Amino acid sequence: MRAAGLLNLRCSGFARRIVSGTVSLAVLAGIMQVSGCKAGPDYHRPAPLGTNAMPTSFEGMGTNASEWKPALPSAHTPRGAWWDVFGDAELGLLENLAAANNQELAGTLARFDEARASMHIARAGLFPRAELDPSYIRQRTSINEPQNGRAAGLAPTYNTFDLSLSAGWELDLWGRVRRQVESALAGLAASAADLETTKLAIQAELATDYFALRSLDSEYNLLERTAQSYRRSLELTLNRRKGGVASDLDVSQAETVLRTTQADLPGLRLERAKLVHALARLCGQPPPGFKWEPRPVETAAVPLVPASLPSQLLERRPDIDAAEQRMAAANAQIGVAQGAFYPRVRFDGLAGFRSVDASSWFDWPSRAWAFGPSIQLPLFTGGLNRAELAFAHATYRETVASYRQTVLMAFQEVEDQLAAQQLLQSQLEAEEAALAAARRTLETANNRYKAGLVTYLEVATAQRSALTLERTVVQLRGDKLVAAVGLIRALGGGWENNSETRSATAR
After folding, report:
1. Could you give the 3-state DSSP secondary structure of residue 229?
2. I need a surface site. Which of 87, 138, 322, 421 has the fewest CB within 10 A?
3. DSSP codes of every residue in 58-126
4. Spatial separation of the C-alpha atoms in residues 212 and 219, rounded to whole Å
5. pLDDT value, residue 58
6. CA 111 to each of CA 191, 225, 252: distance values in angstroms, whole numbers, following the listed order
7. CA 440, 442, 446, 448 torsion: positive or negative?
8. Domains defined for the chain, CATH in brackets
9. pTM (predicted TM-score)
């Protein structure tokens, strides 16, 4: 049969000799299942980057290589409650609240339970099935049927009392059912990794919004303090105008600087309200009534997150693990599709009591039984089996491409966050130096204005320049915290070695 060429069947030498002999079908079936004959290829992880070699290190480490040290997945990198590295108790409170109440996480957990149930459904095919089927039927047969439609001595209308125990078992000769179980197990592992991916994404999003909120609080405090300072400057200018020292132009310039600063405050409050609402959603809470006290970002510590080696990223990232498990599931489906070309052997049996009279229902002569094997051999399916096999191969190739794309995205995210760590620090240092110079300029401009050497325009210009730089410094400090969260997420830092979840596949 040409279909035999489509089957990659792996049997031990002993099993092949049995096939050519005259051993009974039951013995043959038992030996083949024990010897591990399975249709289709065994799973082997393909090269994560295709024809490209795995890089030995991340380029983003750059000149900070002494600070960024390789970390084993089980050692130097934060795991579990990774947000503890920020030393922020309020962040930990929010993370715990989200873990208990986030609805996206609850939905992903339900999908994991679905995958576990699907695995048990597939594994049930390995075992015999037995059903007890008691029934009572009152019926009439046609008088015009052959033999009058009746058993000897019975009227056309009669009763049937039946109590039967039926059992059946499909012999998994070619490993079709075992491949289905293998695919379901890989699907369960992929679902467990999806759960960890969702958990890490929610944790990182919450931490990002939290630090963005604190950065806004710092910026808002800065603007309020600055507005108070500008208000005093306006009062001073008004007094100087009354004394004939300052002009109306000086007053209008001082007022313009104050009003411009005050005009920025409602916008910051709006952004803060949106972030608080986002935190409420992530924590599974309704936004009305969800309050969070302002807290400046200056008190937050920016941790040093050790970078792992590129090869270890494949073990740390749950999304990479999920993509690989889907490859394994698709690979097993190739075996399922190949197994459809070969006979399916079943053993079915029935035993029980059957009678037309309730009084003799359980009498020994009312016993009935049947037992025997059946073989289903596909002869012509209209190309269905070949199409399903081609579909399985194409699905596997798709999962390979998806896996490699996930790996590439992971490397890109790590490189982006490593670059952000370095460049944000460099930018912050430069902006702080510029801010120090701007403050000196503002102090000089104030002294010159008080001495009557310049107009208020020079002071207003220096004020605007200093405020812009101060806001930039505050934003950069928040950006550094957000970048640290992004790096932890890119490294899979929130992914625990979920052996308990994996062990569910064995139950």
Report:
1. helix
2. 138
3. -GGGGGGTTT-----TTTTS--SSGGGGGT-HHHHHHHHHHHHH-HHHHHHHHHHHHHHHHHHHHHHTT
4. 10
5. 73
6. 7, 50, 64
7. positive
8. 1-37 (no CATH), 74-126+174-302+315-341+385-507 (1.20.1600.10), 128-171+343-377 (2.20.200.10)
9. 0.79
Distance CA 403, CA 413 (A): 15
CA 311 to chain centre: 20
DSSP 8-state assignment for residue 507: -
Strands 344-355, 157-171: pairing is antiparallel
Supply angle C-alpha 94, 97, 101, rounded to 5. Answer: 140
Backbone angles phi, psi at 196, to 5 degrees: -70, -35
pLDDT in tens, 352-395: 999 888 888 888 988 898 988 888 888 888 899 899 999 999 99
pLDDT band at 452 (very low <50, low <70, confident <90, very high): confident
**What span, in angstroms and rounded, lies between the C-alpha atoms of 389 and 192?**
28
CA–CA separation, 501 vs 322, rounded Å? 13
Q: Is the pLDDT of residue 128 over 70?
A: yes
> Tokens 């200018």 correspond to what residue?
237
Judge whether 375 and 344 are in contact, CB under 8 Å: yes
Q: Name the pLDDT band for 39 (thresholds 50, 70, 90).
A: confident
